[in-house]
Every structure is written in structure tokens, then in C-alpha cells.
């Protein structure tokens, strides 16, 4: 277990989890984004950018991300999907339109929620599994 690497992975998972929660409220409750929500989306955007850098640099964090996401996302598609997520998060975080479904379609919002949730679950499961293994 490598605590600094695990902390980075945990931070990515947490940022994506918070963004997915915000976007789920937009989708299911028709709520609009408040400034605090937009900050969470910016944090998720920054995590996507940082994760892509980790992946392209082949760092231990990038290697872990690739390994744990491999069951759902092929090597090349993960990078492309992170770019798509970045574009969506960028649009939503800068939008002044109170109706986020005008900025992105409901289908695109649903995809973004699912993608961020999947990443979060996979990464946080990795951290939890390591923690349980060490404590056992």
C-alpha cells in the first residue's frame, strides 16, 4: 500500500462522486446548479485532467487507474471518455443558464453521471480493498 498514491486516487474518486451526486439532483429533481455545485464540477474537471496526465505519463497512479478501470473501459477509450467528461464538466461549470439540460441533453447528463459514478466506485473500491487487506 502506498499512502501518497492512494490519497491521490481517493481524491479523484471523491471529486467524481461529489460531481455525480450534484448531476443526479439536476437529472432527477430538475434542480439547477448553485455556485457550490459548480465548484464541485470544477473539482471533477480538474480530476479528469489530472487523471489523464497520470495515465499518459505512466505513473503508478495512472497504472492503478488503468488496471481498476480495465473491466469497463479499454485503454484508448478511457482517455477519450475522460476528454468527453472534461468537455461536459467545462460547459456545465461555466454555464449561466439555469436549465442545465439545455446546455447538455438529458442523455448526455445521464451518461456523465454514470461514467463519473463508475470511476468513483472502481477507484474507491481499490482503496477500500487495500485498507481491508492491510488491517486484516
Task: Describe the protein's architecture and organization.
The protein has 136 residues and is mostly helical. It has helices at residues 3-29, 35-57, 60-69, 75-94, 100-103, 106-135. Helix 1 packs across helix 3 (60-69) and helix 1 packs antiparallel against helix 6 (106-135).
Summarize the structure.
The protein is mostly helical. The protein has helices at 3-29, 35-57, 60-69, 75-94, 100-103, 106-135.
Number of helices: 6
Uncertain regions spanning at least 5 consecutive residues? none
Radius of gyration: 15 Å
What is the H/E order? HHHHHH
What's the number of structural domains? 1
Overall mean confidence score, pLDDT: 89
Question: Hey, roughly how much beta strand do the residues contain?
Answer: under 5%
Which percent range fits the helix content?
A: over 70%
Distance between the termini: 13 Å
In CATH's first tier, which class applies? Mainly Alpha
- Name of the CATH architecture: Up-down Bundle
Compute the number of strand runs: 0
**Oligomer designation:** single chain
Structural class: mainly alpha
Bulk shape: globular
User: What is the CATH T-level topology?
Assistant: Four Helix Bundle (Hemerythrin (Met), subunit A)
The description of the largest β-sheet is: none
